[in-house]
Design a protein that fits this description.
By secondary structure, the protein is mostly helical. It has 4 helices and 2 strands; from the N terminus they run αβααβα. The protein is 46% helix and 5% strand. A two-stranded antiparallel ribbon has the order 1-2. The relative contact order is 0.15.
Length: 113
């Protein structure tokens, strides 16, 4: 009985993810990125990471809708684009990370064993 209840809740969660807008981003994270760019562009990279993490922990919302079984969803919204409708604006400090590969280096540098 409890397993079925959980599976039903997880189905709702899965469906919400699959129906989500893949062109949106975590807008609050984008605000932190813009703040880092504006206030810390000359700071050492380790200081930028520390401040960005502090600001995210201070300011990120974690909305929880009725019926959700997992807390931690982030506020999403449109990602700014430049003149090319297929090119999302990227912040230089955050252009590489666990979900954003360093494409320029990958495409121009040889692979090393």
């Amino acid at each position: 009985m409890q397993k079925q209840w959980m599976e039903e809740r997880l189905d709702v969660f899965r469906d919400a993810i699959l129906k989500g807008n893949n062109e949106w981003c975590f807008t609050e994270r984008l605000k932190v990125q813009e703040r880092v760019e504006a206030e810390l562009s000359e700071a050492p990279i380790d200081e930028r990471y520390v401040k960005a993490l502090e600001w995210m922990l201070e300011d990120l919302s974690t909305p929880l809708a009725e019926g959700e079984v997992f807390a931690g969803r982030m506020v999403e919204g449109p990602w700014p684009r430049d003149d090319n409708p297929y090119h999302w604006v990227s912040k230089p400090f955050f252009s590489k990370g666990h979900t954003t590969l360093d494409w320029p280096s990958m495409l121009t540098e040889p692979l090393h064993a």
